[in-house]
Amino acid sequence: MSENINKDKDVLKIGKYFFSSRLIVGTGKYPDFKTMKDSIEASGSEIITVAVRRIDFSAKENMLSYVDLDRFTLLPNTAGCYTADDAVKTLLLARELPVFKTDMVKLEVIGDEKTLYPDNEELIKAARILVKEGFTVMPYMMDDPVLAKKLEDAGCPVVMPLASPIGSGLGIRNPYNIKIIKEAVSVPVIVDAGVGTASDACKTMELGVDGILINTAIAGAKDPVGMALAMKDAVKAGRLAYLSGRIPMKLYAQASTQMEGIVF
User: Fold this and answer.
1) Which of 37, 106, 150, 232 is catalytic?
2) 142-175 tens-digit pLDDT
3) Nearest to residue 172, comparing CAs of 234, 125, 108, 113?
4) Helix H or strand E encompassing 143
5) How far apart, in whole angstroms, are the C-alpha atoms of residue 191 and residue 37?
6) Is the model more confident about 34 or about 98?
7) Which burial class, exposed, middle or buried, applies to 90 when counting CB atoms under 10 A from its CB (0-12, 13-18, 19+)?
8) Is 106 noted as a catalytic residue in this protein?
9) I want to staple 234 with a disulfide (CB 3.0 to 4.6 A). Which of 13, 76, 182, 201 is the partner?
10) ∠ Cα 116 121 125 (to 5°)
11) Residues in a beta bridge with 47
């Protein structure tokens, strides 16, 4: 992470921070801490998100015991919060912990237990409070262009629409909304939740989004470390394909070799 990196390079900018990797990974759902550690390192990510409410800071050993705090930027999140008040209190408490060395936070305010869809009203309410408190707020949101614009106007330096429900592995269900969100806001768009495999990640990045946050698809894979490597390469490939500009899709064939001007 750097606040002074060359801005002409293709880097991910979140507020005042710059990152080389466009993949953010989570720390939950792994079979053990060692697998989590190896997967995080294999992913090439520079940001890892942790659920503040699920860390037992009193335990002799917890997930943070396996994380190189000098190598990774910890992104505290409010998983499990269902009101703006709970989310704000959680992050104010997290700010007091020395392990969290930046003001970056991932804001989740859940509105439905079954789908884990966010509560729009509570999300915006919490975002406005946290921005005033000086946080760099990264809000998990529905794939709603109107909501995205409201969150940008509230001061969020990035928006994080879901691809599909958390942990579903369904991939990106509405690429058109994601494209509209990209047009609606001037801040980076990071797709959060629903990516199931490497092809999902590649296709998502090809839409022109600025990054992806992935947890379950890596942690729940038969080989989490291998999947982390696959996601790392997929995100890079999708980004490069987007920047390179794909050819237009056509109904009929077009010869690779032009015949005009050839003498037989």
Assistant:
1) 106
2) 999 999 999 999 999 999 999 988 888 888 899 9
3) 234
4) none
5) 23
6) 34
7) buried
8) yes
9) 201
10) 110
11) 24, 73
Q: What percent of the chain has pLDDT over 70?
A: 94
- Residues comprising the chain, all counted: 264
Cα separation, 17 vs 2, in Å, equals: 6
Strand boundaries in the chain, DSSP class E: 12-14, 17-19, 23-26, 47-51, 73-77, 104-107, 136-141, 160-161, 190-192, 211-214
Please say whether the beta carbons of 188 and 210 come within 8 A.
yes
* Contact of 87 with 81, CB cutoff 8 Å: yes
DSSP β-ladder status, 211-214 and 190-192: parallel
Q: Give domain limits for the chain.
A: 12-244
CA 197 – CA 44 distance, rounded (Å): 16
- State the residue for tokens 């406005």: 128
Is residue 159 helix, strand or coil? Answer: strand
CATH architecture of the domain 12-244 equals Alpha-Beta Barrel (3.20)
pLDDT at 130 over 90: yes
Paired tokens of 39: 């997967």
Containing 63, the helix (H) or strand (E) segment is none
